Every structure is written in C-alpha cells, then in structure tokens.
C-alpha cells in the first residue's frame, strides 16, 4: 500500500478482451474510432491490436473452455458521445444507457457483440450540458 510521501505514476497501458468472433469485434471497435492490425506472438493465437500513444487494446479469441472477459467494463473518452453511440449501435451494439448528462459529463453505455459493457464519456465539459 502506498503512503502519502510516495510519488505514484501509474497508468493503464494494456487492456485485453476475449471474443468468440474477433473479426466482428474488431469491426465494432473500429466504429468507435480505433484502428486494428492483426498480430501473432510466436505460436500464440492470432489477435487484433490497436495501439495509441501509451495504450494498447487487444482482442484475443475466446477458446471454447476459456474464461470470458465480459464482466470487464471498458471506458472510452470521446469527443462526441451521441455520434459514437449511434455508430456503435449501428455496428450491432446494444443500447444499455442512451446518451445523457451525468456527473462525469455526457455519458452513454452500450454492450458490444460479446456482452462487454462499453462506457462512453465526453472529453469536453461543453458536451455534458447538451
């Protein structure tokens, strides 16, 4: 456990989810604005990776006996919540909470094709007032 005197510089730099249909999952997250390339490390499974400054988001195949990652909630800050929400629903996502103001700014939640809940929040305070 850290103490008040310690300097803490921690950030998430990798998020991996598992999908039964990685091609469709990559298409869904591309509707969000991410760009993916296929990767394979050694003899590991082929998967998708989206790399942005300081962060990698990967989609690995879910094996028949694998543990799903659908209990993981994924959050993205986006410039236009309403537009991104509409694109994700059009890409096959399920609306959980449509865009609306919240204490964290404009916010929406959609389920991806595997059931991961994807939270969208506005990157600017101005959109939270709409």
Automatic annotation (TrEMBL):
Pfam families: Glyoxalase. Residues 11-123 form the VOC domain. InterPro entries: Glyas_Bleomycin-R_OHBP_Dase, Glyas_Fos-R_dOase_dom, VOC_core. Gene3D superfamilies: 2,3-Dihydroxybiphenyl 1,2-Dioxygenase, domain 1. This is Glyoxalase-like domain protein. It comes from Rosistilla ulvae.
């Amino acid at each position: 456990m850290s103490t008040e005197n310690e300097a803490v510089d921690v950030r998430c730099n990798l998020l991996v989810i598992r999908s039964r249909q990685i091609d469709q999952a990559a298409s869904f997250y591309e509707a969000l604005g991410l760009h993916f390339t296929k990767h394979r490390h050694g003899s590991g499974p082929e998967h998708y990776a989206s790399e942005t400054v300081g962060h990698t988001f990967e989609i690995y195949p879910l094996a028949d006996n694998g543990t799903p990652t659908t209990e993981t909630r994924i959050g993205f800050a986006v410039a236009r919540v309403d537009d991104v929400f509409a694109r994700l629903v059009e890409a096959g996502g399920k609306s959980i909470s449509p865009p609306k103001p919240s204490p964290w700014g404009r916010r929406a939640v959609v389920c991806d094709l595997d059931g991961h809940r994807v939270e969208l929040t506005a990157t600017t305070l101005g959109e939270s007032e709409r």
